[in-house]
Amino acid sequence: MNKFKFDWLILPVVGVLIILAAWHIVGGKKVYSLTTGMAELGTTVAALPEGEAQWKALAPKLKSGEIEATETKRLRPDVWEAISSSFEEKRIGLIPDLPNVVETWDSSKPYIVDPWAKRGEMDQGILRFTWYSLVLVAQGYAIALIIGVPVGFFLGLSPTFTKMFDPLIQVLRPVSPLAWLPLGLVLFMRAGPEAGTYAALFTIALCGMWPTVLNTAVGVRAVPQDYLNVGRVLKLSRWKMLTKILIPATLPYMFTGFRLSLGIAWLAIVAAEMLTGRPGAGGFLWQEYNALIYEHIIFSILTIGIVGLILDRLMSLVEARFKAIS
Length: 326
Description:
The protein is an alpha+beta fold. Helix content is about 75%, strand content about 10%.
């Protein structure tokens, strides 16, 4: 149990903390550089209610002539409003334009603390955006498996079918989702407002089915000949040969394909949403990129990665459950 905690909990947490620390170190931060004299600024603050006490709190922070954005949030709003014109905003750091951890968290907090909020079509909580994407992924992934598994069995069982269609599969397989989506939009142009949805499903299914097709075919070819001979001796029907011998023997290969297909399906939906502007994890990323809100871009990337990890782990659990049953 202790080794499990160390391997699966403590080490990953340490790794995440190291990455966060490195990100925070290389990231930039927003500072406000003083453009007027300290004496003039002190006079401005002194004119405010309780000005002397406020200046005593503010002056030590301005020894370098700069004040960090996080420090300005600790000032009273009326104080900062009165003195903000005396400062010039700039960014400093190893990579100045890269938001650090604190800035990313502060900017993304509304999407996290109220994850199901719906303030507008493209201003919603992160879980609601993710749900939109997952629903479409589930539909496209189901289509990919329904088509991919039979095609994989045909490739594995029939040399003639393989010679006819394997070259075509090898041509289509490397094509990016970004290339398939425009074709999907053309194919479903007459669907009206739903054209983007159908094009996304087309892209997910087409890109996601190839790992299932190829791994299923490899699994069928790897079935020991002895298994098939036993089936023939027992005079099993084709259906029983398929369900009692081929599918159980091929299942580990199939699940490898299922996991790879699921990852590609999630990748494809992000690309589809970015191009079509659909609400979802990818659509949110594209919107924030156009708005040049770098904190939200990083937040979107992290969300997409975490969801992909969760989907892979869930598929691993399903695979383990099937192996236990069989």
